[in-house]
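Dear colleague,

Following up on yesterday's call, I've attached the two folding results inline so they're easy to grep. Please treat them as preliminary; we haven't cross-checked anything against experimental data yet. The first protein's sequence and structure tokens come first.
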Amino acid sequence: MVKKAIGICIVIFGILLIAGAVGLTAWNINTDVTAGQVNEDLNDAVIRIILQNTAEIESNDLGTPDFLPGIYTPDFTPGGVKVEEPELDAITVDDHDYIGILSIPILGIELSVMTQCDDTSVDKAPGRWVGSPYGKGGFVIGGHNYRSHLGKIDRLREGDLITFTDLRGNVFNYSVVGQEILNANQGNELRDKEWGLSLFTCTLTGNKRIVVRSLLKDSTIINPPNTINNK
């Protein structure tokens, strides 16, 4: 009788574990799907602004802009420093500000990018952690590891294309160089002026960061912003 009772308890416990795992998986899938649906709505709003801005640009030759991507940007340090780089335009959608569209063709990803990357809003879309595409390296975008967000960036390989388009319709094409893994407390190493754009997301365990490094391949500047001091 005792052995039988123990066997029944083990079976029940096993069923509970399976049910819990199924429930967790279902929750994760639902969260991922919801994040993807939210992003599609955001993209529509952001893309409309980009199209409006590019439509306002005259078709004639604009000549050489006052600045070019690649101007000097001071190294990032904790607490913030004054960085001489153009401020990116932003659009407010549902009380959050967005600066452009991140596209990764090989992964079939097109994501709106928020002005900031923080725990309170990154579930909606990836965000700029620091920097700008107009500075000399150090543009960093981070996001959740949802498959519909940045959860598949570990599949990127050398030479893969990443594109960022700001609200003025300026396009920056980056070529992937490689990947590295950083600890959660190595935020200072995320920004490195050697790289044009870095993308990062959490590993499955959440205690480390997958960082994809890329270099600026080319850019199309049709409507340059003004250069101002940012903190």
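Below is the second protein, in the same order (sequence, then structure):
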Amino acid sequence: MRANSLALRLFLWSTAWTVLILAVTGFLLSSLYREAVERAFDSRLGVYLKTLVADVASPDQTSDTFPQSIGEPLFELPLSGWYWQVTRLDTEKPEIRASRSLWDSHLAPIEPGRGTVSIAGVRQDYTSGPDNQRLRLVERTIDLGEEGRYLVAVAGDAAEIEDEIRAFDQALLITIGTLGLILILTTLFQVRFGLAPLKRISESLAAIRSGAAERLEGRFPQEIAPLARELNALIDANREIVERARTHVGNLAHALKTPLSVLRNEAAGRDDPLAEKVMEQAGIMHDQVTRHLERARIAARLTVVGTVTPVRPIVAALARTMEKIYRDRAIAVTVSMPADVNFRGERHDLEEMVGNLVDNACKWARGQVAIEVLAEPGPTPDRPQLRIVVDDDGPGLTAEERDQVARRGRRLDESKPGSGLGLSIVLELATLYGGRFALAAAPTGGLRVELVLPAA
């Protein structure tokens, strides 16, 4: 999952919600468990409180001990954290009776307005005991009329509550953490599985672009099946438009070239200023028509998606052909190239570009033409390039002449056959394919032509 990808967005969004929901759930569970533990602890303290209230309200006259029925050893152990205290409030000086565990300390009553109060009038709250122990305290005021008014209090060690809650929170944290990890892994699987059809479409489009396939094949989920159908329809419509454009370009070429040839032939049979002017203008029209029809043909071909052409057989065949054509001048054409380099484009365009370059080199070479094809990395890893270098040992060109030679129909020497459109067409094709075309001095003293094109 790369940055700014749909998969990463879905994963992060789902993970964020998962973490948030689990965190809120954990907090709520911990809070509910704390309340349950406190209620259970208060119930335990309430039992002792009721026992004390009963002993205060109905003391056993035959017993010298108070209270008579608690029976909890912790109340006898000094500073055990478990304490009881009975305070008579209606005397001038409060009379206090307390458990032996309090030793010489006293329990402070709950301040008014703090803690909670049950229906039975029992108050509960946390307080500090001897040695700053944190205690859970329950207390109740009872009025016995003439027998007195008393405040009965029982306190327990709050560390028991905290230890139990801490153990629960640790178990809860482990459980929620494990559940969160499982949910995140499940989310990752769901994102990858759910977006797999989109990845298949992306890979299929790349295959079409590289020429390995012609259409989107396979079954797709209902949600993206219309997208696949529309893309296939678009590809088919594109091919149909290109075929129609090719047909129209061919028809237009024949429709225009034939009348121009008739005009030139008729003018060639006469010797007067009008005939010369007709010949001159007809030649200009012929060159312009040829050029613009060629550009239209090139543009139409470049709209075809997914064409890949092997380079080696084309260059090797052109080298053999040129040696045969220029056999009378003993031109030797040498080729150096890897075996597996491919051009991302149509075969005819590559033949036309390389053919024009090699033919031009053979026209001017004294005896040697060298062709070298190199595979190179492109501006991005998914856009490799191929470099075609053609050197000859001819007279070469100056820097000013090299600037002029690729212009439209520009010819520096009328003694060589041709229309002067060859290098210009190469430049047009290279530009339309997103490549580059450059002229330089060759190491052999002639002209070096470098053509950079997209590779597959």
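For the second protein, one point worth flagging: Confidence is low (pLDDT under 50) at residues 408-420.

Best wishes,
A.L.
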